[in-house]
């Protein structure tokens, strides 16, 4: 096995290769003045298993194309098996047509990947789990809530905060994420019996990253609220939900965002929000973001290494 990284998340790919005790190689990218680029895998991979680790993250169009070019290079070298590990599957929020005339980008990308005849795709916390059904090739959507849950428990213990099923409520910031919040709660509490709340959100379909939380359903009064979502860019959905919880007399606010696709403005707003701490992962490499003591990043390298080992036996 050889682990090959594109440019989107080099550190995550390197660490995963180390855990696998596998050879690591970064794809060579040559850029031209007309903004075109080409990719080269400078190694003979004939009859080998190649694992590509590449998030489709900003700049999303470029990292997607880079992934496709890496796959093409491996096909041309007659690699025995090609597994695409896409920790953050960009464009997955574009999985339905909201307005007449819109493209459904996720379905198109799924068709392109399938037509390249790769053997398997592994991703983490897909925006809508039902979207995996569009793939005719083996597709694995990893749940990475366990390491996040463990980190939150450790944080609460360190801060001498008692959390249990009576004083803590899991909050979904919108109706679409209710099942995700429920799944997190089962892992966090180890039981199906816990408090769950949901924020009603209205999104402006004509504007980018504009939404408004208008009401919260569920009892959050005097409770620790753990808001759970898969991805955040502007941070508005998350912050509006946190504000509604505070208005309903919640005690403390903790947030879980799996994929941190934050803008710098989002970081500033999170710092000024009632959120006590925000837990996220390294599915997206964002070294350009300003630092925040509130944001705690958990590595998913072990989760990826375990999955790759299981599906390459």
Q: Could you characterize the architecture of this molecule?
A:
There is one protein chain. The protein has 313 residues and is of the alpha/beta class. It has 2 domains: 2-142 and 302-311, Rossmann fold (3-Layer(aba) Sandwich); 145-281, Rossmann fold, CATH 3.40.50.2020. It has 8 helices and 15 strands. It has a 7-stranded mixed β-sheet with strand order 11-10-9-12-13-14-15, with helices on both faces. Strands 2-1-5-6-7-8 form a 6-stranded parallel β-sheet, with helices on both faces. The model has no long low-confidence stretch (mean pLDDT 93).
Number of strands: 15
| Largest beta-sheet characterization | 7 strands, mixed
- In the predicted model, the low-confidence regions spanning at least 5 consecutive residues are none
Query: How many helical elements?
Result: 8
In what order do the strands lie side by side in the largest sheet? 11-10-9-12-13-14-15
Q: What structural class results from the helix and strand content?
A: alpha/beta
Mean pLDDT: 93
- Amount of beta strand: 25-35%
Question: Helical percent range?
Answer: 25-40%
Stated plainly, the CATH topology of the largest domain is called Rossmann fold
Distance between the termini: 11 Å
> Number of folding domains?
2
| Global Rg | 20 Å
CATH architecture of the largest domain: 3-Layer(aba) Sandwich
**Shape annotation:** globular
- Which H/E pattern describes the elements? EHEEEEHEHEEHEHEEEHEHEEH
